[in-house]
Amino acid sequence: MTHAALPKMPNQFSAEIIRSDGNYSKIWIDGFRRRVEFYNENGIQSIVISRPDKGVLWSFVLPDCKVVQELPLKNEPIEGSFDPTTFLKWTQEGIDLIDGHECLRFIGRYNIPDVPAEEAYELAYIDLATNMYRRVITYNKLGRQSLIVDYRSVILEPPDKLVFELPEGVLVEEF
Q: What is the model's pTM?
């Protein structure tokens, strides 16, 4: 079994992320700029916009947002402990078809001292043509499937620059 790194995702894209627990999100990536909209089963929408080029991260809840929380953010890539895939040792296990896309199948076994590697793991399906995630499946310590995350409506081009801006009329509160 040879360990492999997961392919780097595209630098510019947008996608819907559908989860088997009923939650979903939308994501826009343009280099280091990111916007993630989170929706729960009650329809509540929270938004996080990361703007390292402006040195800020904004967080707010819609639809009744009046105040935006602003946190300082360095203009550098977020790596290491912020990337959950670094907690796993990945091996490429084959090729599968996911939603009509030929995908490399990777299995990730946890690389954390308190979690035995053979007990909990993840499967990641990466599109062969684009390096875009298509599906991630998480299994618990009992080997039971606990979560499926699908990447849908993927657009592999730079997002509209306006998605990285704040809505008009909100009050920014620094933290």
A: 0.83
